[in-house]
Each structure stands twice: as C-alpha cells, then as structure tokens.
Specification:
By secondary structure, this protein is α/β, with parallel strands linked by helices. It has helices at residues 2-17, 54-66, 76-86, 112-118, 138-144, 155-161, 163-169, 195-205, 215-221, 279-285, and strands at 30-34, 40-45, 95-100, 123-128, 148-151, 174-181, 210-214, 237-240, 262-263, 272-276, 291-296, 313-320, 323-329. An 8-stranded mixed sheet has the order 9-8-7-10-6-11-13-12. The two termini are 34 Å apart.
C-alpha cells in the first residue's frame, strides 16, 4: 500500500513542478485526490499567487469528475463557498495527497484545511509540514476534526519542491539561471526554444523581480527581454558589464520598455532573479545559482557547444511542445 501512496504523492509533487516559479511569492504545491476505491479523481496544483490553492483546484476537479455538469464559479472564494453548499458528500471517505501542509488561515482565499474537513475526507497524506507562522497548523486542525493525517510521505522530494519558497520566506534572494540549448548543446541561434518553452520563460519573466544579463549579449543580440508572449509585466533588468550603462546604444529594444528600471548592479530589493546567458555568463555565475532551467530542442546545430565542467542534480524533467526541459541544481 505504501508504494501506491508514494506514487500518488509523487504525482502531486510532479504536477506542482509544472508551475514552479510561477507561484512566486507563494510555494508550488500539488494535490491528488483518490476515492475510497483507489481511483484517481484529480491531479492539480497551485498555479499563481492570489488564485486557488492546490487543494481547492483538486477538489473542484474531483467534483466535476463525479458530477460532469457541475458548474463551479471561477473565482476561488466563490468556488469555495459553492462547494461547501453543494458537495452532497460526494468526496466523503476520499483520501488527499498534498505536497505541503494545507493552510489553516484566511488569506486571499479561505483555509484549505477547513475545506477538506468539511467534505469528509478520510485521510490526508502530507509530504512537508508548513513552518510559516501565518499558514501552519492545518494538520492539527484536520486531526481535531477527526481526519487522519500522516506527515513525511516522499519528504525529500517535497523539500526539493519548496526550496524557492523557503528562501523567499526568509527574505533571501533566489537565483535561477535559464539556458536554451540545441540537442547537441549549442546555445546559439535566434530561436533555440520552441514557442511553448518561450511562453513558459516569459511567464517566469513576468513574475521575477529582476532579469540579469551580460553586456555582450545586450550588444550582440539587441534583445527586448519582455514578457510579451504572456502579455505580462516586463521585468526590470540588470546589465553586468564593464561598459557603463550610459555608453550602451539606447536604440537596443530593452531600453525602450515603459516603466522598466535598468541597473548596473543587482539591487538589494531583488528576491527572485533570473539570469539569462550562454557559456561565459554561465561560467561566471554558476556557483551563485540556486537552480538551472535548461531547455533542449530536438535539433543538432553546427555552432559551438556550451562548455562547462559541472555535475547537475535533476529536480524535475518535463516536455513543452517540441522541447524537453529540466530544472537542476548543483
């Protein structure tokens, strides 16, 4: 039975990884709901700060699996209240697998621990205990309501998932290096990644406090470095270069983005940064990075490959359109 439980929890954790970095400053959280017969009813995750938590998304999906014609409101608070009034014990006796302890407080959305208890869940498996002062205590609340709770399932994988959140929680900067490569390891070419990968990268750009890039890339590539594919807010930019900012060609598109701040040094307020570059930039900053986001397309190129002596530890691998991608740490 434990093998099955680990499978369900890993499913929840892997789903959360698909939205890693997009939930900033919230943690990435996944949730799987299984009925009393072991059938998977839903696999979902928290997708964006201020939107529905993983548990609410999973409950909504599970109820719609049981009752396909159920019309749930899109707004999280309305969906929460609707479910409490109209669930009709459809999930009574179900089991939930959550990567992080369900919240017990009222924030932008109501507490997930209360939702799970009201719906009559039999047991909640939790990978990681929430240590934040505001959101902790969900496990204890559930137990007080008669719901069985078990912590520590797939704990190492759960800890890896919330590493960015733990740094943000302590007001410490989190640094992500983004790299796009051909199948044989070349970082050169106008569009190395497919559109799906570029959209994901633009989604991250729309969330970060700062995008860091080298002066050589700015001069040679003349980028805009915005989040247009996501229709999101363009990030502020820090250009690392020996050349003073006032000597750069201001017709380079990145300098024309409205309301953008451009720095020559990393400002202290930046808590989530993404570094973008190739070989020299990677060599210079790899030891400072918390994680590496690496896209691979399915093409071989004649251009020079990235050369780096490093042994990466994979945290997650996925597919975006025609590309594969991975999130790694040193």
């Amino acid at each position: 039975m434990r093998v099955h439980n680990e499978f369900y929890m890993n499913l929840a954790i892997n789903e959360a990884w698909k939205y890693q970095f997009l939930t900033y400053p919230n943690p990435a959280v996944g949730c799987v709901i299984v009925d009393k017969n072991g059938r998977i009813l839903s696999v979902s995750a928290h997708k964006e700060a201020g939107k529905a938590h993983a548990e609410l998304n999973a409950v909504s999906q599970a109820l719609q699996e049981i009752k396909p014609n159920l019309a749930l409101p899109d707004e999280p608070n309305l969906a929460y209240e609707f479910i409490l009034k109209h669930h009709n014990n459809a999930l009574k006796g179900a089991v939930a697998f959550v990567s992080l302890e369900p919240c017990a407080h009222f924030g932008k959305t109501p507490p997930c621990a209360k939702l799970l208890s009201e719906l009559g869940f039999k047991k909640i498996f939790i990978s990681i205990k929430d240590t934040s002062e505001k959101a902790c205590g969900g496990g204890e609340f559930l137990q007080q309501k008669g719901v069985a709770v078990e912590f520590g399932l797939c704990e190492k994988a759960g800890q890896n998932l919330i590493k960015p959140f733990l740094k943000w929680q302590k007001n410490e900067p989190y640094k992500l290096f983004k790299l796009a490569l051909s199948l044989n390891g070349s970082a050169f070419g106008k569009f190395v990644s497919c559109e799906a990968s570029r959209i994901y990268a633009h989604k991250i750009r729309s969330k970060i406090d700062l995008l860091v890039i080298g002066g050589k890339s700015v001069r040679e590539d003349r980028p805009i470095l915005d989040a247009r594919l996501e229709k999101g807010k363009a990030p502020d930019v820090c250009i690392i270069s020996r050349q003073p900012l006032n000597e750069f060609d201001k017709s380079i598109p990145l300098f024309s983005v409205p309301k953008r701040q451009i720095y020559s040094e990393i400002p202290p307020h930046a808590k989530f940064m993404m570094f973008e570059g190739a070989n020299a930039f990677l060599q210079a900053f790899k030891d400072e990075m918390d994680a590496f986001l690496i896209f691979h397309n399915a093409k071989f190129e004649r251009n020079e490959n990235v050369r780096l002596k490093a042994e990466f530890k994979p945290l997650f691998r996925g597919i975006l359109g025609e590309d594969s991608y991975g999130i790694y740490e040193l």
